[in-house]
User: What shape does this take?
Amino acid sequence: MSDDNESSSSFPIGKTAQEMGLSYVPKCYIMPPSQRPSLNSEFAKVPVINLGDTNDIVNDPLVERSIIIHDIANACRRNGFFQVINHGISQSILDGALSAAFGFFELPNEDKEKFMSNDVYKPVRYGTGLKDGEDKVQFWRVFLKHYANPLNDWIKLWPQNPQDYREKMGKYAEEIQKLAIKIMGMITEGLGLGPTYQSKNVKDGMNVIAVNCYPPCPQPSLALGLPPHSDYSILTITLQSSIGLQILDTQDNEWRGVQNLHGSLQVHVGDHLEVLSNGLYESVVHRVTLNSHKTRFSVSSLHSLGMDEKMKTAEELVDDEHPKRYKESSFSDFLKFLHENDIGQGRSFLMTLKKN
Assistant: This one.
């Protein structure tokens, strides 16, 4: 490792170690020994749910749907995470989204710098850390975040380069919004709330797409792409180019990797679904590990209610034996929390929502 002065300092946005491709890991990226990743961890036993079965008319479609709803409920209850296949989004659209991500991060710096900002309230921003310039520990990631629902309201603010970015990522955003509504209906039906509970609110709500780039890291056992956290969202749906995501298995408190199944999408239970379910479904804690040989891309869509619309616990899930455990909150409440806190140091939005 280099003894250069840079190794102990914080890198400014746009000039980070991962962007410059340094051949060593500077001190400000090195995780404490107890938090360093195990890159040889076994894969998690993650349910893979075939959503195409709901369209299978060979068997009774109502029976098939009830089985899928049951499987999703079990996955949400077990570890707040599952993968879906035959989800209705074509492979060409998935490949297009990853191609758009690759194309953006391959642009010259002057094109990306147009979107560079540390302001968490901006609807489109490029950055390199949780809070660039302020993080006590930095993470080996570059990202582009932009709002995506309603698409016509936001797409005109997205990057115009690469020339096909808006077309490819826009198609993905449209399809992922439909899928989120479909999955949400199955989740609320599994909770006994019915398939249309909150469906209109999700349809009209926020979708924040986080396009992530994790360049090769010279010593991946020392650093992380993202620290342990849960998402503020109701649901997060993620497309990844290769392995790197790890989830915390709450049964034994061990980190386990998530396999990358071709054509699959990963579904995370977020904080606001934990609130809605009164803790029946807990948001999944996850982190991102690195590798030394290739760049990893992911496209995560974080679905929530409208900017100022409060998510609250379903009254049907509250009684004398199960009192309400969470406070109400909105996406704008999360942005305020993010603006005021360093989540890289373990500050959790979810903890602020728990009563007592």
